[in-house]
Amino acid sequence: MKVLVDTNVILDVLCDRKEFVANSLRVFQCCEAQRVTGYISALSIPNIVYIMRKELDPERIREILHTLTMVFSVVELREGDLLKAAELPFSDYEDAIQSTCAARLRADYIVTRNEKGFENSPVPAISPTELLKQL
Questions:
Q1: CA dist., res. 93 & res. 79, Å (int)
Q2: Closest to 118 measured CA to CA, from 133, 134, 135, 103
Q3: Helix axes 93-105, 79-87, angle to 10 degrees
Q4: Which of 32, 56, 62, 75 is most buried, with most CB under 10 Å away?
């Protein structure tokens, strides 16, 4: 199974978001153990650094990048992804980009806590909990 993991799931783990961290961490572990093939969009990396900027120094950023690239394959952004995302009926352009990357990958799912944001996605969105149930 191939999944694109949305930024919010990664931030659950990195920010230790108490109510979400357990299942999001299990998704990380499943990707690391190759029970599923996990991907993240290149867009997620600068978003993570921006959101966590007050807590990060250059060394911590390198550690996070090292960890993420060990666990997940990073999907590059292409010009076509950006243009296609702008055509999709999404209210959030970032979600549209994630969806476009997932579709190009032929991912089975987008793993996110924002399933409603992906209602118009050609790739179905499921929560970390739902993914874990399927495994």
A1: 14
A2: 103
A3: 120
A4: 75
DSSP element (H, E) containing 67: helix 58-71
Residues shown for the chain: 135
pTM of the predicted model over 0.85: yes
Residue type, 132: L
CATH number at residue 44: 3.40.50.1010
List the chain pLDDT tens, one digit each, 135 residues.
Answer: 999 999 999 999 999 999 999 999 999 999 999 999 999 999 999 999 888 888 888 898 889 999 999 999 999 999 999 999 999 999 999 999 999 999 999 999 999 999 999 999 999 999 999 999 999
